[in-house]
Design brief:
- The structure is a single chain.
- It is built from five helices and five strands; from the N terminus they run αββααβαββα.
- Strand 1 and strand 2 form a beta hairpin.
- Helix 1 packs parallel to helix 5 and helix 3 packs parallel to helix 4.
- The chain is an alpha/beta fold and about 150 residues long.
- About 40% of the residues are buried.
- It has a five-stranded mixed β-sheet.
- The chain is about 40% helix and about 20% strand.
- It is globular.
- The chain starts with a helix and ends with a helix.
Length: about 150
Amino acid sequence: MQRALAMAREAERFGEVPVGAVITHGDRIIAEAFNLRETLSDPTAHAERLALSMAGKSLGTWRLDGCKLYVTLEPCSMCAGSIVLARISTVFYGVSDPKAGACESLFRLTTDRRLNHQTDVRPGLLAGECAELLSHFFQTLRKRSQRS
């Protein structure tokens, strides 16, 4: 999760919402990414989705069985759906997202038994650090918009 936090800080340097994601297979990192929605003008360029794409290329398959995803913010419905389709075994996330979270907050897509795959979800990993990073980003953004 420390590496996911580093990725989130990188996103912040780009003016992006500071969310970072890392995917491991065994004991090695196979993909890491951060939000690039603003930079790429792409509404789907979330850290998780970008990391999933890289992980598939790294392993040469879309089936990411046995892989673990570490992400600083609870995945949204788009990302949670992608996690299920990719067959990620475990998701560790830092802070819950009461407005868009689709692992536990608003929806439980990753553990829905009606789907062909379920993912073990572990919330709260380094939650304080993840929350502080996001909070600082949005406070700064609000201050800038008030000055304008």
